[in-house]
Amino acid sequence: MTTRSNMLTAGISNNKVKYSRLAADDDGYIDLQFKKPPPKIPYKAIALAIFLFLIGSLLIILGALLLAKIIPVAVSLHSDSTVGAIPIIIIGILVFLPGFYHLRIAYYAAKGYRGYSYDDIPDFGD
Questions:
Q1: Does the pLDDT at position 125 exceed 90?
Q2: Measured between alpha carbons, how far is 106 from 13 in angstroms, rounded to an integer?
Q3: Of 1, 39, 95, 96, which residue has the fewest beta carbons closer than 10 angstroms?
């Protein structure tokens, strides 16, 4: 009956294994295939996201003020003056959402959160 120690020593004897020490001095060689280039920041796309975020926020606030009748509507074809506020709020939301989304990705990529990078933001081919 063979034991575990006999099986281990049958393959390679501990006396025959030769080890070599690694060099203690480093020559400063860096393998460039493992080095990542710094991320390319899409400044134009981030500027567009800021613009969309601000315009969308402004339209949402303006629509909410019109809906609450804090800002009076000068010319109204309908008896209900809140009719014009609803499209402004909808357009504001449609403009706000992409701006907010891309700004959030840019913020998390700048802070270095896992799963977020500047590659997730479209760069318009620049």
A1: no
A2: 58
A3: 1
Q: Where are the domains of the chain?
A: 40-120
Token pair for residue 31? 């393998």
CA 26 to the chain's CA centroid: 37
Rounded CA-CA distance 73/88 in Å is 13
Cα 58 → chain centroid: 24
Q: What six digits make up the tokens of 78?
A: 């309908």
Q: CB-based contacts of 60: which residues, under 8 Å, 6+ apart?
A: 89, 92, 93, 96
What is d(CA 48, CA 96) in angstroms, rounded to the nearest whole number? 11
Residue of 90, 87, 95 whose CA lies nearest to 48: 95
Tokens describing residue 26: 């480093």
Amino acid of residue 79:
S
User: 3-class DSSP state for residue 52?
Assistant: helix
**Single-letter amino acid code for the residue at 65:** L
pLDDT above 70 (res 1):
no
